[in-house]
Amino acid sequence: MQSGHSPHEKILQEALKAELRLVNTGLPKSQRKLSDLLKERHPQVSCNDGSVHSFKRSELEHLASITDASEQEALLLPILIEVGTDESGTTVVCEGPVEEKVVSRVLGMLLTCEHKRIRVYKPQLGVLRAKLKTTTVYVFSARITS
């Protein structure tokens, strides 16, 4: 086999991808700028399944208190917490320096972004979700490597 995957592995991978699509149906269709959400009376985003994901104002204000105006323009919410099926574990998707700053400040420790991801461990994840329950969402992914 050229790809190094047996037919059985390919079937399992396709099944896993299909299951992950189902698990992720409630995810927001898109992310929105913190600066825009702060201006709204009822800040929210639409989800793929037709539901609405609402943000707590107190969380938005906390994020605003630890970012400047340009960072509020750059910070997209909800912040994505990726739960992988491989050894990479749980990571925060980091599109730029603002996510790195926010996660570091919320957790009270310096964290670095590598390959657009910030690795977080179970105790850190608990703190992050406790402080940013509505401004973070889980994304389940299958980064299958050969």
Shape: globular
Biggest sheet overview = 4 strands, mixed
N-to-C series of helices and strands? HEHEEHHEEEHEHE
Total DSSP helices: 6
- Percent helix, as a range, is 25-40%
Distance between the termini: 12 Å
Radius of gyration, taken over Cα atoms and rounded to an integer in Å: 17 Å
* Total domain units: 1
- Average pLDDT works out at 89
Poorly predicted spans? none
Strand content: 15-25%
Across the major sheet, the strand order is 7-6-5-8
Structural class: alpha+beta
How many β strands by DSSP?
A: 8
Name some characteristics of this structure.
6 helices; alpha+beta; 40% helix; 146 residues; two-stranded antiparallel sheet; 4-stranded mixed β-sheet
Question: What this model shows, in words?
Answer:
There is one protein chain. It is globular and about 50 Å long. Strand 5 (79-84) and strand 6 (90-93) form a beta hairpin. With 146 residues, it is an alpha+beta fold. The protein is built from six helices and eight strands. The chain has helices at 7-23, 34-38, 57-65, 69-74, 97-107, 122-131, and strands at 32-33, 44-46, 52-54, 76-77, 79-84, 90-93, 117-119, 136-141. It has one domain (7-141). The protein has a four-stranded mixed β-sheet. A two-stranded antiparallel ribbon has the order 1-4. It has a two-stranded antiparallel ribbon with strand order 2-3.
